[in-house]
């Protein structure tokens, strides 16, 4: 691994690292905030998954999350949102290709050789974090929009791996909205049955469970009605008796202003689960 940058903040260290990924077949960058408590004892890990067009920088520079991670003694890890590089397949549109990996394992050409973000976050990145930083093997996951989709899917499919899950404005049912239909058609092909494994609502309805989930959705979000459809998640949780807290926040949009307002509550919520 190569250290790309390092900054002191809130008594801890904000770093960005670069490494060669065997899963994605390209070089990848990820951000790590190491809180001050880690100098005394290893800390649990909270993974953040960002949304469309983002990389590892958006969360660490806009969310103000380091203050809360330092308060609760949690290591924050924020990977990039897709494989990157000249040899990596891409698309001219902003919602497909580089910056839009959708946290799945692609099965179709030309995406399959690199777009394996599900396996990367679940396995390779976590193994690297465990081997390289002062952490214990306890992790939770949260994210925004496309990253909220990724967080929910990872936790629902791997409840033994993640202590808790939360999301800001997640794409809860990508098989039913334009963003997901476009991405899944490209990455996974036209067999919609193969899409279900990456749809949080479909997973809940088919019996996948987590102990609890927390979701915040802004009512001023331009994508709320067409792309996010938070009500589908609420209905699925109610029908399957899955514990949930889904909060509709008046006025808030899809931006990091929204995330920065509630990120402290999310980190505190995860800290409770991680410290049990």
The proportion of residues forming helix, as a percent range, comes to 25-40%
How would you sum up the global shape? Answer: globular
Terminal residue distance: 32 Å
The CATH fourth-level homologous superfamily: Alpha/Beta hydrolase fold, catalytic domain
CATH architecture classification name: 3-Layer(aba) Sandwich
Number of domains: 1
Q: Please tell me the overall pLDDT.
A: 97
Strand percentage lies at 15-25%
CATH class group: Alpha Beta
CATH topology: Rossmann fold
Strand order in space, largest sheet: 1-2-3-5-4-6-7-8-9
Major beta-sheet overview: 9 strands, mixed
Structural class of the helices, strands and pairings? alpha/beta
How many β strands by DSSP? Answer: 9
Taken in chain order, the helices and strands follow as EEEEHHEHEHEHHEHHEH
EC number: 3.1.2.12
Catalytic activity: S-formylglutathione + H2O = formate + glutathione + H(+)
Keywords: Hydrolase, Serine esterase
Active site: 145 (charge relay system), 221 (charge relay system), 254 (charge relay system)
Account of the 3D structure:
- By secondary structure, this protein is α/β, with parallel strands linked by helices.
- The chain has a single domain (2-275), classed as Alpha/Beta hydrolase fold, catalytic domain (Rossmann fold, 3-Layer(aba) Sandwich), CATH 3.40.50.1820.
- It is built from nine helices and nine strands.
- A nine-stranded mixed β-sheet has the order 1-2-3-5-4-6-7-8-9, with helices on both faces.
- Strand 2 and strand 3 (26-34) form a beta hairpin.
- Helix 2 packs parallel to helix 9.
- It is globular and about 50 Å long.
- The two termini are 32 Å apart.
- The mean pLDDT is 97.
- It comes from Mangrovibacter plantisponsor.
- InterPro entries: AB_hydrolase_fold, Esterase-like, S-formylglutathione_hydrol.
- Its EC number is 3.1.2.12.
- Belongs to the esterase D family.
- It catalyses: S-formylglutathione + H2O = formate + glutathione + H(+).
């Amino acid at each position: 691994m190569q250290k790309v940058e390092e900054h002191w903040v809130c008594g801890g260290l904000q770093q960005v690292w670069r490494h060669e990924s065997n899963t994605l077949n390209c070089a990848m960058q990820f951000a790590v905030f190491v809180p001050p408590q880690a100098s005394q004892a290893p800390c649990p890990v909270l993974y953040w998954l960002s949304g469309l067009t983002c990389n590892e920088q958006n969360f660490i520079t806009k969310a103000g999350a380091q203050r809360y991670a330092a308060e609760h003694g949690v290591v924050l890890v924020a990977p990039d949102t897709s494989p990157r590089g000249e040899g990596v397949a891409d698309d001219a549109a902003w919602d497909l290709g580089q910056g839009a990996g959708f946290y799945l394992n692609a099965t179709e050409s030309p995406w399959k050789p690199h777009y394996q973000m599900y396996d990367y976050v679940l396995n390779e990145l976590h193994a690297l974090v465990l081997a390289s930083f002062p952490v214990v093997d306890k992790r939770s996951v949260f994210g925004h929009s496309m990253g909220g989709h990724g967080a929910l899917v990872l936790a629902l499919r791997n409840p033994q791996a993640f202590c808790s899950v939360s999301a800001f404005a997640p794409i809860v049912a990508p098989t039913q909205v334009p963003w997901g239909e476009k991405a899944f058609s490209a990455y996974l092909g036209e067999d919609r049955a193969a899409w279900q494994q990456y749809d949080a609502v479909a997973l809940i309805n088919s019996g996948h469970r987590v102990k609890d989930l927390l979701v915040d959705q802004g009512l001023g979000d331009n994508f709320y009605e067409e792309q996010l459809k938070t009500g589908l998640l609420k209905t699925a949780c109610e029908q399957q008796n899955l514990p949930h807290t889904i909060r509709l926040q008046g006025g808030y949009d899809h931006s990091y202003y929204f995330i920065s307002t509630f990120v402290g509550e999310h980190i505190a919520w995860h800290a409770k689960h991680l410290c049990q």
